[in-house]
Amino acid sequence: MDILNVSSKGQIVIPEHLRKKLNIRKGTRLVLLTKKDTMVLTKETDAERALQRMDKEDLGWLFLNEQALAKDWDTKEEDEAWKDL
Predict the structure, then answer these.
(1) Alpha helices, DSSP H, located in the chain
(2) Quick one: which of 17, 75, 34, 81 has its CA closest to 42?
């Protein structure tokens, strides 16, 4: 799991190891899918296939995992630990 910071312009940087692994280069088009407070970023060419693979059960697990992790991660201590990264 990678944690990204958002710049003052609302930009994020995809870590180099993920760009290499996923073959993302300058000009690669990405699709941002959102539901409530969750975002999924995928390459444009893969978006339709990803949506087809993500049935309701898969999406349910995604959101349940987020809720479970939030209990541990949404704390002042965690915010303090990650603020300078």
Answers:
(1) 16-21, 44-53, 56-73, 76-82
(2) 34
d(CA 50, CA 60): 15
Who's near 39: CB < 8 A, 6+ residues apart? 32, 33
Using alpha carbons, list the distances in angstroms from residue 75 to 14, 28, 40, 50, 80.
Answer: 25, 35, 23, 32, 9
pLDDT at 50: 67
Low-confidence ranges of the chain (pLDDT < 70): 46-70, 85
Q: Are 44 and 30 a contacting pair, CB within 8 Å?
A: yes
Q: What is the model's pTM?
A: 0.51
- Whole-angstrom Cα distance, residue 10 to residue 80? 21
Give the DSSP letter of residue 50: H
> What does the block give as tokens for 80?
């303090």
